[in-house]
Amino acid sequence: MIPEVVKNWIPRLPMTAPSLVGRHVRTDPLDLSKDIPLLWDALGGNDESINERLKWYGFADLGNEQDLSDLLERFHQPATGCCVNVFRLVPSNQVAGMASYMATRPEHGSTEVGLVAHGPAMAQSPAATEAHYLLAQHAFETMGYRRYEWKCDSNNAPSNKAARRYGFTYEGQFRQHIVTAKGNNRDTNWYSMLDSEWPQRKKAMEAWLHPSNFDQDGKQKHQLQHFQESNK
């Protein structure tokens, strides 16, 4: 089989944490000096729900804001294309969650959206879908990347469901991929979205997010999968 030639390819710039504004949510680069207390509260804080939201990543339990700061400081390295995006609700500007660009390989045009955590204020809402729409659009259209990845613990049902819902394609499972900080085995499921697939995924997300898809009580009329299927 003759390899496909990637015409006129040049390496991309490292990923950045963008400031993007949608109808329901905005994304901003993490400010370690200001955002940690807000994120700590948004994800559950001292009531242990913060650990419930992050438990699948394999880290040790987070006991306080400093633990969260230390964790995010490890990931927020913009020079390498690994950067934390903070989600703020529109119009209140309330911090409600986060996600990171990571495992970035500019020479291949590949990056992952990971360390995803939606607090109660945005979980299972249009804000969550719009946040991932904005991040994917930035990766593909602004930065010119070819491949967008989503990886999660095989046992993390909500994350696996979200990946499929947003239009990522399941690629397989890395068995015995990680021994977590708690000493547990983690099998990791891999998903991806390609630049050639993004126009269809984008159209479906925009159709789902459009105000006409919601009734006067804010309930969706059609699921995102409806628009994914109808746009194939």
From TrEMBL:
Boundaries of every N-acetyltransferase domain copy: 59-169
Q: Which GO terms label this protein's molecular function in UniProt? A: protein N-terminal-serine acetyltransferase activity; protein-N-terminal-alanine acetyltransferase activity
Q: Specify the superkingdom.
A: Eukaryota
Which stretches of sequence are listed as region Disordered?
A: 212-232
Any one of the GO CC terms:
cytoplasm
Q: What is this protein called?
A: Inherit from proNOG: -acetyltransferase
What organism does this protein naturally occur in?
Seminavis robusta
